[in-house]
Amino acid sequence: MVSNGKYNAAKLALKLVKDGMVLGIGSGTTVEIFLNLLGERIREEGLVVYGIPTSYQSYYAAIRNGVKIIDLVEHEPELCIDGADQVDAKMNCIKGGGGAMTREKIVAKASKKVVIIVDESKLVERLSMPVPVEVLPFAYGYVERKLKEMGAEVKLRHGSGKIGPVVTDNGNFVVDCDFGVLEDEDIGMIEENINSISGVVENGLFPKLIVDEIMVGKS
Ligand code: 5RP
Prior knowledge:
32% of the residues lie in helices and 23% in strands. It is α/β, with parallel strands linked by helices. Ribulose-5-phosphate (5RP) binds next to helix 2 and helix 4.
C-alpha cells in the first residue's frame, strides 16, 4: 500500500522535469512512484528523458517507463530525485533503507541539484535511526569493531528471500549502526569518520550540504 504523501511528493517533483533532461534517479518506493508518473508524461507528451539509476530496482523501473539509460562517464545529471528514510529540521538525511546509499550518494554528488521526495512520516527534529553502512565482506569483522569503538550499536543486515546477510547491488554487506540521536553540528564529522574506516564503501548519512531541496508530500 503506497501512501498518498509519497504520491504527492513524487507528483510535485515531476514538475521539475523538462524535455531532454539528464536525471539522477535514486531508489525506493517514492522514486518508483515518481518514475511511473514520469512514464505517463513520456508517453503522453513525447518527452525524451535520460536517466542514471542507482539500483537494479530503479534501473528496471526507469526502463519500463521509457527513460533512456545513460551513465556517469559521459553525463552529469542536471537534477537528482531521490527518497530518504529520515529528514531532520536542518535538511540532513539518512538513506539506505533499500541498501542503495553508495550509488545514491555518488549520483547525488555528481548532480547539479538534489531534490529529496518524502512523505511526512520521514520528518524528524533530529536524526536518530541507525545509519546504514556498506562494507566490503572481507573487511566486515574489522569494520564492525571500529564502528563499535566509535560508539555505535552495530547490526549486520539480514533480508528476506535469502538466508544470510543482505548483499547490495555492489556485492557488499550492509551494517546498520545506531549512534543514537545525531546533532546537526556532528553529522558531517560522523559521516567522514565512518568513511575513513578501511573496508567501508559508503554510508547513508547525507549531510545537508548534499541536499538542495526537500519536497514533502502530505496525505
Ligand atoms: C534506498 C533509499 C530510499 O530512498 C529510502 O529507503 C526511502 O525509500 P522509500 O521511498 O521506499 O520510503 O535510501 O537506499
